[in-house]
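Practice problem: Orotidine 5'-phosphate decarboxylase domain-containing protein
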Amino acid sequence: MPISITYVNILSSLPPAGTPAIKRHGVDSLIPALREVAPEALIVADLKTMDVGGLESRIAFRAGADVSAVLATGGENKTIEAISEAARQGKVILIDFIGCPDPIEKLDELVQELEGHEDQVIFCLHRGISEQLKGRGIYEKKQLLAEARKHAGEFPLAVAGGIKEGVAKNVAGAGAEICIVGSAIYNSSDPKKASKRILGEVRENYKK
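Answer key — structure tokens:
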């Protein structure tokens, strides 16, 4: 069964601390605040780390995050550092492919490089908000989603970017284990009901 990461608690309590919020409030303020209101949650620190992966992930984990996000672009040393830190602390690194010009090629490289770390890594296909303004979300890229799920092998695959009710089925149907939903929930007039509807759609259409 897939896990849904959203800005409210819908399944398995995985709220992300988004990048703008972390930059505004700071890791040491925001993550403990989330932990206070959701003590059983698995908290994702969306740091989008581009350098010093070990240091930034350690900062996030010490503040109470369970998952820290590193960018797939750039050098691989920062990713190795972050994963090493995650392994030491029993945490997880989410590798974000936002802005990656050839995500499948990069995915293949990382799968080979990170073999044996399937328990410490989540791969995430991501179309950012600025890119969504030029078109639709990543859910329209059905072939890319299916290829990514196949190439990810034993690593879990997350998908983010413009996912909402009526299109979450495309992500779930492609086999992604994690469906990240943001604005479709926190901009809803009734976030709880929106969460339940999207989660139902994901569950109904998920194909392993």
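Discussion: Residues 150 and 175 are 9 Å apart (CA to CA). Students who identified this feature from the tokens alone can consider the problem solved.
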